[in-house]
Specification:
The complex is a heterodimer of chains A (239) and B (439).
Chain A: E1 2-12, E2 17-28, E3 33-37, H1 44-51, E4 59-64, E5 67-68, H2 74-84, E6 85-88, H3 100-111, H4 115-128, H5 144-157, E7 162-166, H6 174-189, E8 193-197, H7 201-204, E9 209-214, E10 217-222, H8 232-237
Parallel strand pairs in A: 3-8, 3-9, 6-7, 7-8
Antiparallel strand pairs in A: 1-2, 1-4, 4-5, 9-10
Chain B: H1 2-15, H2 17-45, E1 56-60, H3 84-90, E2 98-110, E3 120-127, H4 131-134, E4 139-142, H5 147-151, E5 156-159, H6 161-168, E6 177-180, E7 183-191, E8 214-217, H7 220-223, H8 243-248, E9 255-259, H9 263-282, E10 293-295, H10 297-303, H11 309-339, H12 341-349, H13 354-390, H14 402-428, H15 433-436
Parallel strand pairs in B: 3-8, 5-7
Antiparallel strand pairs in B: 1-9, 1-10, 2-3, 2-6, 2-9, 4-7, 5-8, 6-7
Helix pairs in contact in B: 1-13, 2-11, 2-13, 2-14, 11-14, 13-14
Classes of the chains: A alpha/beta (239), B alpha+beta (439).
GO molecular function (chain B): transmembrane transporter activity
Membrane topology (chain B): Multi-pass membrane protein
Keywords (chain B): Cell membrane, Membrane, Transmembrane, Transmembrane helix
């Protein structure tokens, strides 16, 4: 699904060069749930931005879903982001003056779906995160956990094959964080590949695989630990 | 997507109401000033007889002072009007298919006492019969007079719509009588609404005045010795002891127009007036070099400088003012758009292309332009009202019609888009990754 080989990313200013990634290699199989950990400044977010085609890189090759995306135009990258990738951000990144329906609608508009198709997808994805009854509310009327679930619904509405989550529980308390991770596990179980950047080792342990990044390189690849994909309490909670 | 962009634009404007109000106000002010000056300029510079430009000619002969031109600043120009005797002589020509000599004159109008209208003074046009046909003058009732009425100075009158409304309450008054200067005139026609602006056929007596209130045969002026109602220009001292002396003087005060269909006719008539002046030279008149001109209405409006240069300058200044307003708007738009860069970054992350972002923001500046245009039309209306208050003669000029209202909208939208191009381009360059952490 995701294959990065010898990726390097250098940020340059007039005074300084920063090697955010150097010879970065990672292979994520379809259906995997991978957690990326590492200290601040290690290159996790740069990796995620490159993986999500939000940023270009200086050297190396990157194949996404079998397609070489190393040298795509800006428009092509936008198109792939829209069709194949879903994003979940630490600070939710919902548009404050749009209601939940319109927030989830944003990527679908750019995808060119007709009104009926958009409505169906929005309703289904909001139902999946348990917020269909609140689709006319604006984000400020929701709790942090609910807002993150809306962001997940937005990411899922376009049925992406690949979900990128950047500290998805960073702004949530432990209970809400657990609900969000339960939801991600559920999504993964339905076949969506997930790469999640996190600082939280507890959260990382819930993934199939834990990738540790240090100084812009992958330093440790922990294999999938034998554990249930879905926690029993999540099933009981109905999420 | 267009409707979606409009919805986003309205939400965006509501998000920053003060900035939105400032931008809309800036465009409205600029457009309002531009449309005010443009409206006056457009009406001043219009040619109300454009459809007859090819066949109509204003006739001018240079009978002026041999030592000094008619206009020191433009010595090539002959006087704008003719002497009575020259006009009468030219009227003998059968080269023009139609021709008209005319002038203004004051009359006191009295009507049937039963109508209860007090006597009042009018400016009448004393003219030959072709006035109505040569200038396509529209009639509400009846029509003009014939050659016999001209020759016999018959006491017939054509009333303007306004006069007919005043005396007869707008009823068909053809066949009824009115008294002009104590004599009965039979009403043979009533004009429909007719407001040629500028009043091309007589630019020397109030270019932007309304039309005359009554029209009577030219020769009545001589028989009743009706004093000239407009400008009379003389270049030498002559004894004017009687009205007849005045008619035979070298004073110019008669307007003269001919209809010449085809180049041959124009050349033949030019040759005719040149020959006439050559003959007059032998009699000791027309001491200046031969300088007889036939002007199309367009040329006539041009040489008469109906549009004062001040007015052109004013239009230029108003557009400069609009440019200043737009510069302010560019600053405000830059601040607004770059302030919303995190949202743009988010939309880019969710799949919006640069073109999509560009279109979205262009629609937003278009919406600002439309709002500014609508407000600008209101301001232009107020501006024109102010002009009307200041200059009574400009009453007919200061109307905001559909064309100018649409022009205001087009200018406003174009201005908005123009001002929005750079801020829109800047916001399209936003790198999505740079803002996603900070949103």
């Amino acid at each position: 699904m995701l294959h990065m080989q010898n990726i390097s990313k250098v940020f340059r200013t007039e005074l300084i060069e920063t090697h955010a990634l150097r010879d970065f290699n990672l292979h994520v199989k379809e259906g995997e749930f991978v957690a990326v950990t590492g200290p601040s400044g290690s290159g996790k977010t740069t990796f995620l931005n490159i993986a999500g085609l939000l940023e270009t890189f200086n050297s190396g090759t990157y194949q996404l879903d079998g397609q070489d995306v190393s040298r795509l135009s800006d428009d092509d990258r936008s198109r792939i982001r829209n069709q194949k990738i879903g994003f979940i951000f630490q600070s939710f990144n919902l548009i404050p003056d749009l209601d939940l329906f319109d927030n989830v609608d944003v990527p679908l508009r750019y995808r060119g779906f007709n009104a009926a198709e958009r409505k169906k997808r929005i309703t289904e994805s909001l139902e999946l995160v348990g917020l269909a009854s609140r689709m006319k509310h604006i984000p400020a009327q929701l709790s942090g956990g609910q807002q993150q679930r809306v962001a997940i619904a937005r990411a899922l509405a376009g049925t992406p094959r690949f979900l990128l989550a950047d500290e998805p529980t960073g702004n949530l308390d432990s209970l809400m964080a657990r609900q969000v991770v339960d939801l991600l596990e559920d999504i993964n179980r339905r076949g969506t590949t997930i790469v999640m950047v996190t600082h939280d080792p507890e959260l990382a342990r819930r993934a199939h695989r834990n990738v540790h990044v240090m100084d812009g390189q992958v330093t440790d690849l922990q294999p999938f630990a034998a554990k249930p994909l879905i926690r029993p309490e999540a099933v009981a909670a109905g999420v | 997507m267009f409707n979606y962009y409009v919805r986003l634009a309205l939400k965006s404007l509501r998000r920053t109401p003060v900035v939105a109000a400032l931008m809309i106000g800036a465009i409205a002010l600029g457009v309002g000033v531009c449309i005010t000056t443009l409206t006056v300029y457009r009406l001043m510079s219009g040619n109300p007889i454009e459809h007859r430009n090819d066949v109509l000619r204003a006739v001018t002969l240079d009978n002026w002072d041999p030592n000094q031109p008619w206009d020191d600043r433009r010595p090539e120009l002959p006087p704008y009007e003719l002497t009575y005797r020259d006009a009468m002589a030219l009227f003998e020509s059968d080269i023009p298919s139609r021709q008209v000599m005319m002038r203004k004159g004051p009359f006191v109008v009295e009507s049937d006492p039963a109508l209860g209208v007090k006597p009042f003074l009018v400016e009448a046009r004393l003219t030959t019969k072709d006035f109505f046909s040569i200038f396509d003058v529209p009639f509400e009732y009846g029509g003009g007079w014939d050659a016999a009425a001209d020759q016999g100075a018959q006491r017939v009158v054509v009333l303007s719509k306004e006069t007919n409304d005043k005396i007869f309450g707008g009823q068909d008054s053809v066949g009824k009588n009115v008294r002009l200067d104590g004599k009965d005139y039979n009403v043979i026609g009533v004009l429909a609404e007719w407001t040629p602006t500028p009043k091309f056929y007589d630019l020397n007596n109030g270019s932007f005045d309304g039309i005359e209130e009554a029209f009577v045969p030219f020769n009545i002026g001589q028989i009743d010795q009706v004093q000239p109602g407009g400008n009379v220009n003389c270049w030498r001292t002559q004894p004017l002891n009687s009205f007849q002396d005045f008619l035979e003087s070298d004073c110019v005060w008669i307007q003269y127009w001919v209809e010449l269909k085809g180049r041959d006719k124009v050349e033949a008539y030019q040759s005719f007036i040149d020959s006439y002046v050559q003959e007059q030279k032998k009699l000791g008149r027309f001491e200046r070099p031969l300088n007889n001109k036939l002007r199309t209405p367009e040329e006539w409006l041009e040489i008469n400088r109906v549009v004062a240069s001040d007015n052109s300058v004013l239009v230029g200044l108003s557009f400069m003012f609009l440019a200043v307003c737009l510069l302010n708007m560019i600053g405000l738009l830059l601040a607004k758009f770059l302030g919303s860069a995190p949202l743009v970054g988010l939309r880019r992350a969710l799949g919006a292309t640069r073109q999509t972002i560009f279109n979205q923001h262009l629609v937003e500046v278009g919406v600002i332009g439309i709002a500014g245009g609508v407000l600008g039309i209101g301001l232009a209306g107020l501006g024109l009202l102010g002009v009307r208050q200041l200059y009574e003669n400009y009453d007919t000029l200061t109307r905001l019609d559909v064309t100018m209202s649409l022009t205001a909208l087009v200018i406003a939208i174009a201005s908005g888009v123009l001002a929005g191009l750079y801020p829109t381009w800047r916001v399209c360059r936003v790198q999505p990754a740079a803002y996603l952490k900070t949103q």
